[in-house]
Amino acid sequence: MLIDGFTTLAQILNFLVLVFLLQRFLYRPISEAVQQRQQTINQRLQEAAQKSEQAETEAEHYRQQQRELEAEREQLLAMIRLEVETQRQHGLQQVEKEAEAERQRWHQYLIQEQQQFRQRLRREMSSQSLQMLAHMLQDLANRSLEEQMIQRFLSHLQSMDGAERQQWVEEMQQSHDPVVIRTAFDLGEIAQQDLITALQTWAGVDLPLVFETQPELICGVELRTVSHRLSWTTADYLGDLDHRLNATLLSPLPT
User: For residue 123, what pLDDT band results from cuts at 50, 70 and 90?
Assistant: First the structure.
């Protein structure tokens, strides 16, 4: 079989034309379409990846905000619990202070009431005792005892220092009123005269004297001028004893 060169060349040219046409009108458009499609897919995948990354970033940001909010919430709750506990402790301390202050006031009130009661009781007992003692001394008092007390009174005058004695004498001399001598019992004329003589000897001058009887003295003698008084009586002794007892009663009592 003979090969026709022209036919062969024509076929080769037809084939090349066909390949060119296929390449130009089929393969290239298909390839470009595939590439474009691939680029679109890649672009979308890239956009999706970017969106996914952005979504993950936003999600992480949201989670971070959630964690921060939770931390702030816990911190706020801790502050609230601390404030509540502080207020509770302060309230308890205040209540305890008020209770302690009230207890102290009540304790002081009870102590004062107890002291006042004991003082009233002791004062009443001392008053009763003094009254009983006064009655006993009054029952025991007589002229003989009073004469002895008058002698003690005169001895007391003799032992008086010079300045005090001079003050008494000057007052009795300058006074227009007589000097009053009081006794619990009536003195006889002899006893009165002896007392006048002793007083004038002590004063060194004549003195106007007046005698009075005052049973409240119980026993003893009292010398009185307008502004001064000098005595040696059982009533004075009881008065001094009562003063000492009152001073003792007014002193604080042991709790």
Answer: low
Q: In what order do the strands lie in the sheet with 229-233?
A: 209-213, 179-183, 220-224, 229-233
- The distance of Cα 237 from the centroid of its chain, to the nearest Å, equals 46
Number of other residues whose CB lies within 10 A of the CB of residue 180:
17
Half-sphere exposure of 169 (CA within 13 A, CB side): 16
Q: What size, in residues, is the chain?
A: 255
Q: Which residues contact 177 (CB under 8 A, 6 or more apart)?
A: 225, 226
| Cα–Cα nearest to 234, from 146, 119, 156, 167 | 146
User: What is the pTM for the complete model shown?
Assistant: 0.39
pLDDT digits (tens, 9 = 90+) for 138-154: 444 455 666 677 777 77
Per the model's pLDDT, the better-predicted residue between 106 and 228 turns out to be: 106
Indicate the burial class of 150 (C-beta count within 10 angstroms; 0-12, 13-18, 19 or more).
Answer: buried
Which residue, among 199, 150, 201, 149, has the nearest Cα to 178 in the 3D structure?
A: 199
CA distance 61 to 48: 19
Contact (CB, 8 A) for 150 and 195: yes
| Best CA proximity match to 178, nearest among 136, 225, 117, 134 | 225
Please, how many CA atoms are within 13 Å of residue 248, restricted to the half-sphere of its CB? 9
